[in-house]
Design brief:
Structural class of chain B: alpha+beta
Helix content of chain B: 10-25%
Number of strands of chain A: 6
Distance between the termini of chain A: 48 Å
Order of helices and strands of chain A: EHHHEEEEEH
Strand content of chain A: 25-35%
Oligomer: heterodimer
Number of strands of chain B: 6
Largest sheet of chain A: 6 strands, antiparallel
């Protein structure tokens, strides 16, 4: 494994976490009709789809935008994920996402994201993931460049001062009573 | 009655529309493919479409843990195995494995808890006794199988540097 040099995107401003209203990254969306099954509930795969496409991945905030990954032939692959549904969403519901960095090492990043009903405020689901940094030339994991790890360190410093959701570290099983 | 254990009752292939910009199956569509395996399990134990429609019931997945072990590409054939880890009156705890059906490698695992829901009030409801008995029989048969390493995993950075 030889880390090839990856330039720091000069134009990118680090998010100012000290002065922004919320210290966690946020984004918004809406539950698309196609995400909802015949029973009116949003299906399990579409929770993952919503998190994957709409949640404010920490990676984007530290410079790993689609354009940057494409230009440097790098990408990120999800290695593992844990989804907990607290309350079903329905078509047309406005949704708000937050993402909190929980940890990282040279190649991997651990994040938990949450979806809330944006009008009523309740938590709909959480999604905890391990994401791997990948060299797309070799399609293998690679160490993140130092500048990127420094940015993750800065984000972790801010996010670790926030409470972590109780869903962090959840094990699937019948030990939790059904939420409805 | 002896069942083949684990269940091997579902096959699929990777659809073009499941592929993302990394040119492999997107994380969400692994879960959709697994959801089809859950539907196959439901049909196998009597919780199929006809039952759900006639009784105004539904199945809802409450929790899912996915390990993405290897990439699969458009057109790849997939086979699934399913074992029942636990159940109570309203819920089933399942573990699916997804294999590349020709090359044989494990592509992904999916551990879930599914809930039986009464659509009249959109709340959890007990399964009919004959279905619960069938699920319990499978659980008992599967309890003799070795426990897969991916069962009961906690997300973290300690183990596993894959790919």
């Amino acid at each position: 494994m030889s880390a090839r040099p990856l330039p720091e995107p000069a134009e990118l401003q680090m998010p100012d976490m000290e002065v922004s209203g919320t210290p966690l990254f946020e984004s918004r969306g809406i539950v698309e009709p196609g995400w909802v099954g015949a029973n009116g509930f949003m299906g399990v795969a579409y929770y993952v789809y919503a998190f994957d496409t709409l949640s404010p991945w920490v990676h984007r905030h530290v410079g790993l935008t689609r354009a940057y990954r494409s230009a440097t032939q790098t990408s990120t692959f999800v290695l593992e994920a844990n989804l907990v549904v607290e309350k079903p969403l329905r078509a047309g519901d406005p949704i708000r996402f937050t993402s909190q960095l929980l940890g990282f090492d040279a190649k991997r990043v651990q994040v938990i994201s949450s979806i809330y009903h944006d009008a009523e405020g309740w938590l709909a689901a959480t999604y905890e993931v391990i994401v791997l940094f990948v060299d797309m030339r070799a399609r293998r994991s690679m160490a993140m460049p130092d500048w990127l790890q420094a940015r993750f360190a800065a984000v972790l410093e801010a996010h670790s001062r926030q409470p972590t959701p109780p869903q962090v570290g959840r094990v699937v099983g019948l030990q939790h009573p059904p939420p409805f | 009655m002896t069942e083949p254990a684990p269940l091997a009752i579902h096959r699929d292939y990777v659809r073009e529309e499941w592929i993302d910009y990394n040119r492999h199956m997107n994380v969400a569509f692994y879960v959709l493919a697994f959801d089809h395996a859950t539907e196959a399990f439901c049909a196998h134990v009597g919780l199929g479409e006809q039952y759900l429609k006639e009784r105004n019931k539904s199945i809802f997945v409450l929790e899912a843990h996915i390990t993405y072990d290897r990439e699969v590409m458009a057109g790849d054939p997939l086979r699934f195995t399913t074992r029942i880890l636990d159940c109570d009156a309203k819920r089933v705890h399942l573990f699916h494995e997804m294999y590349h059906a020709e090359e044989g490698y494990l592509a992904s695992t999916n551990e879930i808890v599914m809930l039986h829901v009464d659509m009249a009030d959109r709340r959890s409801a007990p399964m009919p006794p004959e279905i619960l008995e069938r699920v319990t029989q499978l659980k008992d048969a599967h309890s003799a199988l070795p426990r897969p390493a991916q069962v009961g995993r906690v997300i973290g950075l300690k183990k596993r540097a894959a790919a």
